[in-house]
């Protein structure tokens, strides 16, 4: 790991987070992507552009996969360093709640997670993880709450996935003590990292949705895979489960693919 | 409204909140009530006892309905001043997440809401509302985000209610842009007060679950009723919906009783 890179990412995320908080008091231009629940704002584009300009200035040979597609260099191979960037994760919450959204950055080398960063913007909380070092909350080591089993824990995920019973997710809902849903992968992954819930399973996440969490979970020794226990491909959308190893094994037996 | 009462409640809630935060670093005794998802801890009992002792000292003629039944004077009529107290709302979150729980106090006169208080403990946020005055967040006036319709807004509620489609709640889930679930009525009512979501509907709340929110919503001019548009009886458990007037009317047409 390049520790100057870690230093710079944190600095850049603080700047973006501050600007996003300020934007909540201003009029922000909003557009629909694939319907009224899939929004993009000028601030998503501004934030991703900010990261892309920094990266191309300081690391011109790095590749970038961002939600808004700001970088104009297509990524056709996972070779080298790749950044996975979600400039505002939970844009619907950002627009409607003015709360409960995150910034996510994942750093991968040859397709393997190296470091991950999730900023819980309104709580001023930056979760950073280097796979070889562990996870830190505002630079202090994070120790997750111990979770024993699904039946003695809470779980988190999208309500629609549970209502429609995609991949038999209702089996997990019924086994767990309760199901929570925050509407932002960033906050749902944070809940797993803290051990507030024992797992987060999603029927479909894009690389920018899972990149940061993939690296952060690996830094805690947690498992992150598809529902068929395969490693994630950072160039593909797929179902993803984030959980400590023993919970991950328990959940895979319940999920149906 | 007795403003000395308002002054004292805030002081007492600050003390209880501080003690609850401290308790997260200590071993706390936990017992099951009606199963593994329905917990009570020594801190629930401690907090309710704290309130009951204060109330019986300063207001010996007031009535108390608390979740843990600490007060030994049965309430058989709504006449006079009645306190509805949930010492820890979201005890399961308190135990499992060490996060996302609240303290709720509602003040009623002859069964009618007068004032309500919800403490979002881990965010250090006290929402207080006097029906004739409005709602305040840490003593600053709270202005909710405007919500136009269910189809252009988020909603909040228990995932189980949506999965089981109790009272046809899935119609609301499908119409809304998204459904959130925090596992604590306190935090779900706060989301309505702030306008982060347009409504919170629950298939069954006890008086201590809805008392504070009933008064806080009334202080903003919002509606709080059963699913058949009846006023709430503070001596009975019932389905409850909290929402601004126009959203409340829209939701009642979708709910099936």
TrEMBL record, chains A, B:
Q: Which GO terms describe its molecular function?
A: inositol monophosphate 1-phosphatase activity; metal ion binding
So which cofactors does this thing need?
Mg(2+)
Q: Which UniProt keywords apply?
A: Hydrolase, Magnesium, Metal-binding
Query: Which PROSITE patterns does the annotation name?
Result: IMP_1
Report the leader peptide range. Answer: none
- Kindly give the SUPFAM superfamilies that the UniProt entry links to this protein: Carbohydrate phosphatase
The residues that hold Mg(2+) are 67, 86, 88-89, 209
Pfam families the record matches: Inositol_P
Q: Which CDD domains did the record assign?
A: IMPase_like (cd01637)
Alphabetical GO biological process terms:
inositol metabolic process; signal transduction
Protein's recorded name: Inositol monophosphatase
Q: Which organism is it from?
A: Suicoccus acidiformans
């Amino acid at each position: 790991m390049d520790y100057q890179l870690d230093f710079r990412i944190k600095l850049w995320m603080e700047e973006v987070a501050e600007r996003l908080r300020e934007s909540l008091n201003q009029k922000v231009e909003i557009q629909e992507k694939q319907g009224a629940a899939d929004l993009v704002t000028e601030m998503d584009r501004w934030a991703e552009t900010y990261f892309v300009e920094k990266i191309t200035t300081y690391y011109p040979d790095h590749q970038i996969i961002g939600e808004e597609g700001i970088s104009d260099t297509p990524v056709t191979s996972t070779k080298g360093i790749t950044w996975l960037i979600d400039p505002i994760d939970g844009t619907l919450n950002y627009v409607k709640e003015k709360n409960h959204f995150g910034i996510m950055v994942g750093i991968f080398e040859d397709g393997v997670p190296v470091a991950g960063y999730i900023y819980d913007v309104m709580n001023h909380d930056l979760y950073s993880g280097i796979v070889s070092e562990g996870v830190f909350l505002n630079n202090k080591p994070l120790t997750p709450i111990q979770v024993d089993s699904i039946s003695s824990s809470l779980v988190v995920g999208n309500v629609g996935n549970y209502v429609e019973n995609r991949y038999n997710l209702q089996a997990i809902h019924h086994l767990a003590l309760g199901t929570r849903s925050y509407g932002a992968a960033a906050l749902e992954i944070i809940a797993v990292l803290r051990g507030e819930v024992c797992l987060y399973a999603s029927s479909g996440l894009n690389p920018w949705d899972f990149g940061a969490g993939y690296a952060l979970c690996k830094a805690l020794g947690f498992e992150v895979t598809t529902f068929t226990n395969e490693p994630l491909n950072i160039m593909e959308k797929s179902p993803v489960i984030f959980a400590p190893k023993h919970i991950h094994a328990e959940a895979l037996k319940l999920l149906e693919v």
